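User: What would this chain look like folded?
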Amino acid sequence: MNTAFIVEIFPAVLAALPVTLSLAALAGISGWALGFVFALVRSRKRGVLQALCAVLVSFFRGVPTVVLLYIAYFILPQLLPSVGTRVSAFNYALIALGLNQAAYASENFRAALAAVPVGQYEAAYSVNMTKAQCLLRIVLPQALLIALPNMGNMFLGLVQETSLAFYVGVAEITSVTHFLADSGLNFLEGYVVLTLIYEVLSFAIGKGFAAFERKIGAYRWRPAAECARHGQGKAE
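Assistant: Here's the prediction, encoded as structure tokens.
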């Protein structure tokens, strides 16, 4: 193994890390927001809109991410020629990854919304809250707490899936590593560097989500009986 090559390319690969992180962050935020809308529609509405959301979620979950990338990069410019020439490869990758995240986040949020006790809605309506106020002040915070562990896992997977953007020409860390390793066929050394970076990223993200979950876990809703048991246990 050429250790000198590893040391040589490490700074260049790290220089592309902001592209990877920004792609993951933007795709995660936009995908989760759209996924929450899908979840709300599917859990509250009936009819054409609910069926449309169900079809979209099923489609984006069923198609491999790399195929979504190719669809976004090669087909969208043909459907929208006036726009396609002005959109960068980064934005096409963002669209594909965001839609993929939206599909999986929709199922996560739908399960989290269903896990909020019905009594929480009834309590909100009993003090004359509107449906919007109930959703924003009561339901949404609890649903996010329930969904948070899976969101952490989804984001870890998303960071790794950004490597697929290499196929449409985005200069993220996988693309840069492959380009640097190609000239001397030092692929083993290049992918050792890439593995180390992804491992550190995964560890840091996992620890960050775990710390955030512990911090806001104190606000998680618990039944009165469970609170009483915890209180009794502490007293003893």
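The chain has a mean pLDDT of 84. If you want, I can go into more detail on any region.
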